[in-house]
Write a structure and sequence with these properties.
By secondary structure, the chain is mostly beta strands. Helices cover about 5% and strands about 35% of the residues.
């Protein structure tokens, strides 16, 4: 039996207890704008395009992002709670000590990004693009990652806990020491070399045998 790895420790966002409302509605967000120490809640942010925007010590709660592109955004000590980031463009982002909790992120772009101490919990990442990114100390827990793009990703101390990862694209992503045993991975697209050293359940091993060209006789 494979010995389970020690639980991955994720640093939580370091956010002050007392925060004022951030006034970012009804204004045009510009390149390199800085927003810090505040909350944004129960609103819709729409039709915004800017690069290298910085959010630090911020809580977003019940916020819908529509037609928003914040490429190369920096998110540091931030929480997204029950937000809708579907189709949002966060390509090239730097994301440190961030939590995405109960968020809808269908088709979101998080490619070519850097993640450190990040937790995704109960999030819908169906058809999201997470490829060509660098992940260290990141947990995906009870998330829908079906049909997500996870190609050529670098993983270090990354946990996948009870996720739906059916048909996920993981070509070029080395899965050594990555525990997939509690997730659904039917139809996962991955190469034999990338699978070496991955931790899977007995049932998953049978499913993945097809990649080796093995025919299992009952």
């Amino acid at each position: 039996m494979t010995k389970m790895k020690a639980q991955i420790k994720i640093l939580k966002p370091q956010i002050p207890e007392m925060l004022d409302d951030l006034d970012i509605l009804n204004k045009s967000i510009e390149d390199e704008d800085l927003f810090e120490e505040g909350t944004v809640s129960d609103c819709c942010i729409e039709n915004q395009t800017a690069d290298k925007v910085i959010f630090e010590n911020v809580i977003f709660k019940n916020v819908v992002f529509q037609k928003v592109s914040f490429k190369k955004i920096e998110l540091i000590d931030v929480k997204f709670i029950n937000c809708d980031l579907s189709n949002m463009n966060l390509g090239g982002a730097i994301i440190h000590r961030v939590e995405f909790l109960d968020c809808k992120m269908i088709g979101a772009r998080l490619d070519d990004a850097t993640f450190r101490d990040v937790r995704f919990k109960n999030c819908n990442l169906y058809y999201s693009n997470l490829g060509f990114s660098n992940y260290k100390q990141v947990i995906f827990e009870k998330c829908l990652l079906r049909n997500a793009e996870f190609q050529s990703v670098k993983l270090l101390k990354v946990g996948f806990l009870e996720n739906d990862m059916k048909l996920i694209q993981m070509s070029g992503t080395k899965l050594k020491d990555i525990d997939l045993s509690s997730s659904e991975i039917e139809g996962m697209i991955v190469g034999i070399e990338e699978l070496k050293g991955a931790i899977v359940s007995n049932m998953q091993a049978l499913e993945l045998a097809g990649l080796l060209g093995v025919i299992i006789k009952e």
